[in-house]
Amino acid sequence: MTKKNKRNSIMGMAFFGPALVLLTLFLFIPMILTLIYRFTDYFALSPNTTHFVGFENFAKIFGDDLFVQSFLNTVKFVLIIVPVQCFGALGLALLINKITACKKYFKVAFFIPVVMSLAVVSTLWMQIYSPEGILNTILTNLGFDAQPFIHSADQALPSIAFMSAWQGMGYQMIIFLGGLQAINPALYEAAEMDHASAWKKFKDITLPELKPLCVFVFITVTIGAFRMIVQPMVMTGGGPSNSTYTIVYDIYETGTVNWEIGLSSAMAVVFVIFVIVLTMIQNVLTKDKEGKNENKK
Amino acid sequence: MKRVLSILATAAVCLTMLSGCSRKVSPGDIEGYDEGEQYISLWVHIIEETPEGQAYLKSVNSFNEHYNGKYFADVEFIPRNGSGGGYSDKVNASVLSGNLPDVLTVDGPNVAAYAANGIIQPLAELSDEEKSIYLDSIIEQGTFNDKLYALGAMESSVGLYYNKAILREAGIDVPEAGNPWTFSEFLDILEQLKPIMKEKNGYALDMTFPVGEATIYYYAPFIWANGGSLVSEDGLTTDGYFNSDKNVETMKYFRGLVDNGYMSSVPIQNLFESGRAAFKFDGAWEVNTIYTSYPGIELGVAPYIVGDDWDGGRYTPTGSWAYAVSSGAKDVEGATELVKWMSGVESGLELYNQTKSMPSTYAAYEQISAFTDDENYKALYEQLRDYGHPRPKTPAYPQLSSSFQQSLENIAISGMDATQQLNKSQERIRAKLERYTRK
User: How much is the pTM?
Assistant: First the structure.
C-alpha cells in the first residue's frame, strides 16, 4: 500500500467510522435484539423475569382483533395513497413541464410541503378538517353538508391519506420532472410529424420512457405508506373507533405504552416480513412487464 | 490489520463521546455535597428551564440547606415528550441496567405498575401525623396492596363548569356540593337547555371523548358515581367489573347524551369559551383560561353529577405526578425524607406559585388566597378534598385507560353495542394482566 493510499484509507475510515458506530448502536444492534426478543415475553418494567416463549407472541398477534384491524387499516391507507400520490405527482410534473410562466414558483410551491415536518402539516390539516374549519366553511357556502372528516370512522383514514399524498407528492414530482426532461425531444418531434394526438404522445412516448421511474416511485411510496404513524398520532390518536390505528402505531404503543417489548418485537418482525414479501412481488411484477416491453421492441 | 485497528479506534472515540452517562459521585464532586453526607439521587420528569423545573430545583436546594451535613439530594431533569415517552423510556432502560436513582417521579396511575414490577419500594414508615397533612386522595393514590409507595408533588381536579348567564336565562339553579344533580336530573336540565343552545348555534354540553388520558380521567367518575368500578380491589381482575351491568348502564347514558343532541358528536373548538355551550368538563386550568382569555364568560363550578342511586361515596377526578423511592435505593429512610420534603407544604406552595398546579397538602391550600377567596377555585378544592377518587389502581393501567376510551368512543359516538364492547375491552385488559395473575 502506498503512502497516499494509506492516508486515503485512514481518511475514509475517519469519515465512515462515526456513521458505522451510530448505525451499529441505533440500527444493527436494535435489529438483532428485535430478532431475539420476538421469541420472549420481555416486559420493559420487569426485564429480569424474561422467559423464552417460542411462537406464543405470534399466536397472540394473529388472535388480536386490534392488530388485524391495524393491519387492514394500513393496507387500506396504502391502497388509497399510492395511486393518489403517484398519479398526482405525475400530473404535477406534466403540468410544470408544460407551463412556461412562473415555472420555478410552481416547482417550489409544490415542493414546500415535503420540506415541512409531518407533525406540523398534520396540525395544520387538523384545523383545515375541523368541523368549523376552512374546508367545511367552503363546503357549506357552496351548499353542501359539513363533513366530519377526521372525526368520523368512515372518513378519517381517507382524509389522512389525502393529506399525506398532498404532503408527499412534491418529492415524486421532482423525480418525474427529471425523467420528463431527460426524454429525447426528437421522439416528440417525430410523433408530431406523424400527427399523433397529445394522448397518443403521452401513452406511447412519455409513459414508456418514464417506466423505470414509475417503478421506483411506486415501490418507495408503498413502503413509505406502510410506515405511517405520525399523522394518526397527531391528528386522531388512532381513532375514531381505531379506524386510523396503523401497524407501526400498534408496534409503538405495545412496546412503549404497554411496555411489552417481546410482543412488539414479534409485531415488527411480522411487519417487516410482510413489506419485504410485498416489495419482492412488486419487483417481480414490474420486471416482467419491462421484459415483455423489451421483447416487443 | 491496520484497517481493522483504525475502525476500532474510531469506534472507541465515538463510543466515548456517546457514553458518560453512568457515574459514581464522591463528596466534593458536586458543589454542596460534603464528606459525611448521604447522597440521594433524584430524577424528575421535566426540563430545568421551565417554571415547574425551577420549582423542583428550589425545593431540592432548600432540602439540601435544611439537611446540610446529613443528606445531599442531587436532581437530574429528564425531558419527556407529549405522550410521556423520553422520561419513562429512561426509567425502563435503567431498570435493565440497574442505574435507577434513589428517588424518582412517577405519574399517579403508574404507581401500581411500578410497584407490582418492583421498580419502586414502599416508603419508610410514616406516622399518622405525617400522613395527615396530605389530602386523602394523595395517600389513596400512593397506596398499593396496603403499602404507601408514593406521595404526590401536586394534585389535580376536573370541574363541571357552567355558564352562569345561560343557566340564569333558563331559570336553572345549581345545587350545593353535597347534593349534586343525578344522571336523570341532569338529562332534564340538558333537555330544557337544548332549544336555548340551538338558538345560540351551540350545544348544552361541550364534551368530547379524546384519545389519551383525558377520557378516563374526566369520565371514569361517572362509573364510580353510578356504583360501578373498572377493576377489582387488588387491581388484577376486570371480568365482572369493567364489563358489569352497572357500567353498561353508564355507557348507555353517555350514548344518550350524543343521541339526544345534548353534545356534538365531533369536537368543536372553544364551544364553551365562545358562549355556545352551557356546561363543560375540563381540568382546573380552565378557570385561569376563562379568567384571562374569556373574561366575558360568567364562570361557575357545579358539583360533578352522580348516578341516581349514589351513596355519597368518593368519585371525582384526581391524580398527578408523585415521588417514590426506587427499589435500588439503599437508604430508604433518607430517600423517604426527600420524598416527604418534595411533596410537603413548602414545595407545594412553590409549585403553585410557579405553575398554578393544585397542591397536595391541606396547609398549602389554606395559605393560597385563590382557594379561600375565589368561589370557583374553592369549589374545585373542596370537591377534591371531599370527593376525590384516584384512577383505577392496576398494573395494566395503560391498557385499561386506552380500553376505557375506546369503549366509550365506540359506544357513545359510533353507536356500537355496549355489552359487546365492554366485554371485548375487558378481554384485552385481562390478557395484559395475565403476567401478574400467573405468578
Answer: 0.88
